[in-house]
Structure formats: structure tokens, C-alpha cells
Design brief:
Blueprint: E1 2-6, E2 12-16, E3 24-27, E4 34-40, E5 45-50, E6 55-60, E7 67-71, E8 78-84, E9 87-92, E10 97-102, E11 109-114, E12 151-154, E13 161-164
Antiparallel strand pairs: 1-2, 2-3, 4-5, 5-6, 6-7, 8-9, 9-10, 10-11, 12-13
Length: 179
């Protein structure tokens, strides 16, 4: 799945399949300006920052069990969001610090370091990487991903895929080759 925020005409947190199909709103009320999003891949939770409502909140992948982690004026200066173990990590653009926030109570906040011009944060650790099994976009005997001549996008499951073409090309009737 692909998770993303939108604060256009109607602010929301959404998810869809990697090919853009099955687009679903998972949060569409009491949300104004969601600017950063992080996933807990193990427990299947979605965290986001809302700088207008000055809050950090969480829901499960279906949009249920919504909780506010923390609220306050300091939220308006946060950008980027990552989750690892018991903490959320974010960047405070006001004082250029990396913050660690306890994701269960929101009160345990610590500044870890200062970085100039940081706007995003990511945690790379083996436990945050999903186990990869065979999938529909693996290279075929000719080296083409999922048998697609240009782009292979996973669909509703790791067993399904959709072929797409680069700009200026159209998908052929075989659903795999681009012309």
C-alpha cells in the first residue's frame, strides 16, 4: 500500500494500492493541514503531523482507533516524521533540532541533536524493513520487471501487478508493452 496526506480542498490521510487503484480515505474529519506521515509497519499504524491543528495523531491502517499523541504550539514548527520502536522522530525547523517523542504518551520529548536546514527524517534499521518475498514485479527471464516493458507497479497484493508506460508512450493491447 501507499499512504499519503492531502490538504487541498478537503484535508485527509489516504491509502491506495501501489498502482494508484483502490484509493481510500482513512482520515477525513478533524484534520486541516497534515504535513508529514510515518508508518509503523509492524503494528500497522499511521502517524501524522497536523501543523494547523498543532497535533500529532495516529490511526490504524483502516482509519480506526484514532488517538492524539501530543498537541501544542511547538507542532507548527515540526517537519518530517519517522517512527522507530517506542518513539517518533521529527525535525523542529524553529531551532533546527531533531526531536524524539514518546509515541505512547507524547510527554517524553527530547532534543537529540541540531542539524542545519533539515526538513525530513528517516530511520533505517533492519527491523523497519519488511521481509521481501517473491512478487509480481520480479524480473522475467528477459530482465523485464513483471514482464512489463517500462514500469511494473504492484497492485492489490504482492501477487498482482499493473504495467504502466513512461511519459509519451501508451500501453499496448497486451497490457505489458509500451508503444
Amino acid at each position: 500500500k501507499l499512504f499519503f496526506t492531502d490538504y487541498g480542498n478537503a484535508a485527509k490521510v489516504e491509502r491506495c494500492d501501489m498502482d494508484g487503484m483502490n484509493r481510500t480515505w482513512i482520515v477525513d474529519s478533524k484534520i486541516e493541514q497534515p504535513t508529514a506521515l510515518a508508518l509503523d509497519l509492524i503494528n500497522k499504524y499511521v502517524y501524522w503531523l497536523d501543523i494547523y491543528l498543532e497535533s500529532v495523531e495516529v490511526v490504524d491502517y483502516q482509519g480506526r482507533r484514532r488517538q492524539t499523541i501530543t498537541k501544542g504550539r511547538q507542532i507548527r514548527y515540526l517537519c518530517g516524521l519517522a517512527v522507530f520502536e517506542n518513539y517518533l522522530y521529527t525535525v523542529n525547523s524553529d531551532n533546527l533540532s531533531i526531536l524524539q517523542i514518546n509515541r505512547y504518551n507524547g510527554t517524553d520529548v527530547q532534543a537529540l541533536a541540531r542539524l542545519d536546514n533539515a526538513k525530513e527524517i528517516r530511520v533505517y534499521q533492519k527491523r523497519t524493513q519488511a521481509a521481501v518475498r517473491g512478487h509480481a514485479c520480479e524480473a522475467d527471464p528477459y530482465g523485464m520487471p513483471g514482464g512489463c516493458s517500462h514500469l511494473c507497479l504492484l497492485s492489490s497484493s504482492y501477487k498482482a501487478r499493473t504495467c504502466r508506460c513512461r511519459t509519451g508512450f501508451i500501453l499496448g493491447t497486451d497490457g505489458r508493452s509500451c508503444k
